Amino acid sequence: MAIDRLVAIAMLLGAAQHARALDVPAIGGSQLSVPVASMKSIKFQTTLRQQYDFSCGSAAVATLLTHHYGVPVSERVVFEQMYARGDQRKIRKEGFSMLDIKRFLAERGFQADGFKLPLQKLIDAKLPAIVLVAEKGYHHFVVIKGAAHGRVLVGDPASGTRALTRSAFEKIWTSKLMFVIHGTAATPAFNRVADWRAAPMAPLGSGISRDGVSGVTMPKLGPGDY
């Protein structure tokens, strides 16, 4: 049990961006080398970070293909191809559009379209999707990676994988438009455990009882225990 606590503390204290190892004492005087990853690095394990202010669209596409359809592609490749074929002046000012995304995916053999459907339809179909949200005065592309227990998991190219309550997500998803790949034999990844690791739910059930410390017993110590 003591080792379990040490491992949990080590995971919470991982402040470096990249994974590292932390040695913790084990039974018999030996040590265990426990890999530690910071929450910051975990958030970008299955979400690709955007490299430019206006490249959330290309990062969202790269995230969708790489982590949900098993087709590895970098944000840079997506960006360069969509930028070369799009209205560059408009892209620099407003970012990529869903038409830019549709053209890129079509060139890769994917049929994709925008649909105005309730969120529950997407959840029932177990399909990841690219959606445009409005936060803090800006429009921004994110990937819906899953939904469970009243929360929606999104891959945000700016801040990484994060979860919002369903009501909070509905509030920023003003267009109600979702961009989905369809007509493919591939089964996309949706609601993966690996994605949810970046947004764990608080273990409220294992917290200290509201009854206080009335049920806590202290050991009876003898004179030689001090």
From TrEMBL:
A Pfam family it matches: Peptidase_C39
GO biological process, one term: proteolysis
CDD domains: Peptidase_C39G
Signal sequence, start to end: 1-21
Domain Peptidase C39: 50-180
Keywords (A to Z) from UniProt: Signal
GO molecular function: ATP binding; peptidase activity
GO cellular component: membrane
PROSITE patterns: PEPTIDASE_C39
Designated name of the protein: Peptidase C39
Protein's organism: Massilia eurypsychrophila
